[in-house]
Design a protein that fits this description.
The complex is a heterodimer. By secondary structure, chain A is α/β, with parallel strands linked by helices. Chain A contains ten helices and ten strands. Chain A starts with a strand and ends with a helix. In chain B, the strands form two sheets. Chain B has a two-stranded antiparallel sheet with strand order 1-4. In chain B, strands 2-3 form a two-stranded antiparallel sheet.
Chain lengths: 251, 319
């Protein structure tokens, strides 16, 4: 599904990532974990086209996407969410998700401004389909609320709903549980499993070990910019190197 | 959607009935300007209020429209109806060419680049004397006409200009509530998030820059054909700033706000004339007060103000 090979990222003399390679399998939930500063978010930014890596290659469904911009990746059905949720604060919850359907619609500027019949019927389709995603993430009752006024947990759900509206085949989530209370985290775990059940491949960077061990099919561990280990949650928990470098530090 | 239509119908009725209260006179001429400035403020608002991109050079596009219309009709005997769309297309192409490099810039740098653009255009008007008449201006620009009917009075021009202005209002409202308008607002709120869900922010900014320039050009052509005389002084940096003020005072991201801003800033100097030399002080003071107490612009500030007054009254009754 997604093949990352030899990714190295150097920021002005500091090596953030060094020769990181791994694969993400279709239909699985993969967790990327590691101590602070391990390079997890940098890796996410590279995969999703926010940064361009110093060297290395990324294949998405056997297509080289190493240097594609985020908007191109969205059209190829790859989407992400952010650690500090990035919402369109001045728009309603419903409108936020409607923007998620940008690549699934095509009316141009003139057709929109002149209210051409085809753009009007497309508008109805966007309106209805985006509602479906609000229901899926359980925030349909907030459809007309300004996104900027949402509590953090609901904002997180909205960001996921908006990402799902892109109809991705892979979704990358950067610390989706950050800032959520334990109740909300439980709901999130359920939701992520439901997303996988839709046939969408999920990759997440996460610090909440309980969540990661609970829902992930496979885990990749990064430490100091290098890949330390990868395997099933059980293998990772039993890996002495991981315990030394990361889990052991907790105590 | 129904409510939008109703609002637009009410606005149209208001605009159409205005001349009945003035019966010609000097103020009619000012109201023609309100129409032109409304078009300009909406054009700039699409860029600034919706897409979040600043321009300090919009007077330049306005001037280009005016001068292209003027030069083509005066020097080359074109029909004004032909000159107007040609001017808009030329300005649109120019905006597209300029937009590619300068819309890569953000914030202050974009402000500087568009400022420079406006100044360059202003200098061209002044220096190409053979074509434009230079600083002394270009006169004898023909009025628009349909058959034998010539738009040669203020009332006629009022309806002519407002036909275009209302079309621009409707066009912009439709745009704002559509797929493209949402994408624009999304880019404004979080460009990175918009890109991640597939919005090509760069192309969208260029598109809206071109549209904005073309509407400004159209306003410029109307200005030239209604005033019949143009000179570079009307299209300088000062006017770019005035347009920016209209948009901000009226309310960013609101089409009707742009009308309010344009109307206020066009009419205020006329009403303050009675204050003689103090007019500029009162004018400046009012603007400062408005920005302080109505940071969301007139379009949001007035309802808020009413609510506050109403609430205070309600509160004192309880006390």
């Amino acid at each position: 599904m997604l093949e990352i090979s030899g990714i190295t990222q150097i920021f002005g003399g500091v090596t953030a990532l060094e020769d990181v390679s791994f694969r993400i399998n279709r239909g699985e939930i993969t967790g990327v974990i590691g101590p602070n500063g391990a390079g997890k978010t940098t890796l996410f930014n590279i995969i999703t086209g926010i940064y361009t890596q110093t060297c290395g290659k990324i294949l998405f469904e056997d297509k080289d996407v190493s240097r594609l911009q985020p908007e191109r990746l969205a059209r190829l059905a790859m989407v992400r969410t952010f650690q500090n949720i990035e919402l369109f604060g001045g728009m309603t919850v419903h409108e936020n998700v409607m923007v998620g359907m940008h690549t699934k619609s095509s009316s141009g500027l003139l057709a929109c401004a002149l209210k051409m019949p085809w753009s009007m019927s497309e508008e109805r389709r966007i309106r209805e389909a985006s509602m479906k995603w609000l229901e899926f993430t359980g925030i349909a009752d907030l459809a007309d609320v300004m996104a900027g006024n949402l509590p953090f947990g609901k904002g997180r759900m909205l960001e996921i709903a908006r990402a799902l509206a892109v109809e991705p085949r892979i979704i990358l989530m950067d610390e989706p549980a950050a800032g959520l209370n334990s109740q909300e985290t439980l709901g999130l775990a359920q939701l992520i499993k439901q997303i996988r059940d839709l046939g969408i491949t999920v990759v997440l960077v996460e610090h909440d070990m309980e969540l990661v061990m609970d829902i992930c099919d496979r885990i990749v561990v990064l430490n100091l910019g290098r890949k330390l280990a990868e395997g099933t949650p059980r293998e990772i928990q039993d890996n002495p190197e991981v315990i030394a470098a990361y889990l052991g530090e907790d105590d | 959607m129904k409510r939008e239509l109703l609002k637009f119908a009410a606005f149209t009725a208001f605009v159409l009935l205005m001349p009945l209260f003035f019966k010609g006179g000097y103020l009619m001429n000012v109201l023609v300007f309100v129409g032109i400035n409304t078009m300009l403020a909406i054009a700039l608002n699409l860029l600034l209020g919706y897409a979040g991109q600043i321009s300090l050079g919009h007077a330049g596009f306005f001037g280009l429209g005016a001068y292209l219309s003027g030069v083509l009709t005066v020097n080359y005997d074109w029909n004004p109806w032909q000159a107007m769309p040609v001017a808009a297309v030329v300005v649109g192409c120019l905006a597209c060419l300029i937009g590619f490099p300068i819309l890569k810039l953000k914030g202050h740098y974009l402000a500087m680049a568009t400022l420079g653009l406006g100044i360059i255009i202003y200098i061209v008007f002044n220096e190409t004397i053979e074509l434009t008449g230079g600083p002394s201006g270009l006169s004898g620009i023909p009025n628009l006409a349909v058959g034998e009917f010539t738009f040669d009075s203020d009332v006629k021009n009022y309806y002519l200009v407002w036909c275009f202005a209302l079309a621009v209002v409707l066009f912009s409202i439709n745009l704002a509530n559509s797929r493209v308008g949402r994408a624009l607002r999304a880019v404004h709120d979080s460009e990175v998030a918009a890109r991640v869900v597939g919005v090509n922010a760069r192309m969208l900014k260029i598109q809206i820059f071109v549209l904005s320039a073309m509407i400004s050009s159209l306003a410029g052509s109307l200005y030239a054909h209604t005033m019949t005389f143009i000179s570079p002084a009307s299209f300088g940096f000062n006017f770019s700033v005035e347009l920016l003020t209209m948009v901000v005072i009226g309310g960013l991201g609101s089409v009707y706000g742009s009308f309010l801003g344009a109307a206020l800033l066009t009419l205020l100097p006329e009403f303050l004339r009675a204050a003689n030399d103090y007019d500029i002080i009162i004018y400046g003071g009012l603007l400062v007060l408005m920005v302080m107490f109505m940071p969301g612009g007139l379009v949001r500030g007035f309802p808020d103000l009413f609510r506050k007054i109403f609430n205070r009254r309600g509160g004192s009754e309880h006390a």
